[in-house]
Amino acid sequence: MSPAADTRGRIVMAAMELFWAKGFNSTSIADILSRTQLNAGSLYHVFPGKQDVLIAVLEAYRDGIEENLLKPAWEGVDDPIERIFALLARYRWMILETDCTYGCPIGSLALELHEADPVVRDLLAVNFANWAGAIEQCLAAAGDRLPADTDRRALGEFVLTVMEGGVMQARTHRDVGYFDRGVDALRTHFDMLLARAARRPEPVQGD
Amino acid sequence: MSPAADTRGRIVMAAMELFWAKGFNSTSIADILSRTQLNAGSLYHVFPGKQDVLIAVLEAYRDGIEENLLKPAWEGVDDPIERIFALLARYRWMILETDCTYGCPIGSLALELHEADPVVRDLLAVNFANWAGAIEQCLAAAGDRLPADTDRRALGEFVLTVMEGGVMQARTHRDVGYFDRGVDALRTHFDMLLARAARRPEPVQGD
DNA sequence: GTCTATATGTTGATAGAC
DNA sequence: GTCTATCAACATATAGAC
């Protein structure tokens, strides 16, 4: 790996943590340099400006969702519906791990950057879409356990909504209970959907 | 009304709009002075610093929720369940009115301010709690139309979650559809709860 | 590619006359 | 209470030697 690639990687890693902990605007280039032990020249040799660091960070989230988020969350969980709640359990764990200061990095950036460049906004949107898309695949795998008229895309987005809203309220109140109650409500939602599908089974081919 | 009170009111109003449009960190004192046509001396005569302007803004949201948000949303809507969706419809209207750039001012500030002063955090929490509390009152008014074991506090928070998540995704994708699908899912949730309560009516006193 | 020094602008906040 | 002028700190980004 070339030295520049290493430098780039160190910057992206440090910026990822700093943007998550302090936000984009409150993170200075000096913060990134301090954490990476690099000099301004090195950073500006790799990135034209601060926004390009943000873009690289969002690309890293996009490219790492499978390996860094879904894979560890779904370790040993095969049932597609339970995978949804296993992912939410992982967020719960992160909330506890950070003393209820955890914020979803994508969600926080999405709300912090009010007049974001189209490239940045697209990357935020792609990150959301991939997250919800992963849930949607679980819902597809659940097949006819869900009612036939279930909008699986909408339900995937709904799970993302519950995560974001739960994380937001838990952080603001410094209390996981707000996240837990949201997940409980979502569990009730799924229970009712599954019960409805069980009461009115799908027409089987040949009926 | 004393001149200072007028000055204070103008600053709070301007800051409210600016924090909503640009965020707290990206709004400078100069922005506020420019919009209010005031000078630095006047602002710092009323407020010790920028954070105190934020506190005043959050207090204004807290004190205005009934008059500025709930009252207009519930004009002519009496059914407690429909009031919930009328409030969400008002958010939909704001999303459209802003070309899908609308962000909930409280939610945005809650995620932007990573290391907020306890006073600020409490005010954010109170704003959330009052919003969810207003929904909870609707749910209480719905009485036995909802299942007896329904956690009405949790469900009120859940409605807030759906609003925040829907607004967040709609803004990021610049597409109301994301908000609409979230509200639809919540409608399904309520329909299932109401149907469940109708199937298993509450034990009536004397049964 | 990396270093140091620095340009250039903006920030929140203050001083002191009126 | 309001005005103007200004401070000190910090921001992003650049220049040019090595």
Automatic annotation (TrEMBL), chains A, B:
<dbReference type="Pfam" id="PF16925">
    <property type="entry name" value="TetR_C_13"/>
</dbReference>
<keyword id="KW-0804">Transcription</keyword>
<protein>
    <submittedName>
        <fullName>AcrR family transcriptional regulator</fullName>
    </submittedName>
</protein>
<keyword id="KW-0238">DNA-binding</keyword>
<dbReference type="GO" id="GO:0003677">
    <property type="term" value="F:DNA binding"/>
</dbReference>
<dbReference type="InterPro" id="IPR001647">
    <property type="entry name" value="HTH_TetR"/>
</dbReference>
<dbReference type="InterPro" id="IPR036271">
    <property type="entry name" value="Tet_transcr_reg_TetR-rel_C_sf"/>
</dbReference>
<dbReference type="InterPro" id="IPR009057">
    <property type="entry name" value="Homeodomain-like_sf"/>
</dbReference>
<dbReference type="Pfam" id="PF00440">
    <property type="entry name" value="TetR_N"/>
</dbReference>
<feature type="DNA-binding region" description="H-T-H motif">
    <location>
        <begin position="28"/>
        <end position="47"/>
    </location>
</feature>
<feature type="domain" description="HTH tetR-type">
    <location>
        <begin position="5"/>
        <end position="65"/>
    </location>
</feature>
<dbReference type="InterPro" id="IPR011075">
    <property type="entry name" value="TetR_C"/>
</dbReference>
<keyword id="KW-0805">Transcription regulation</keyword>
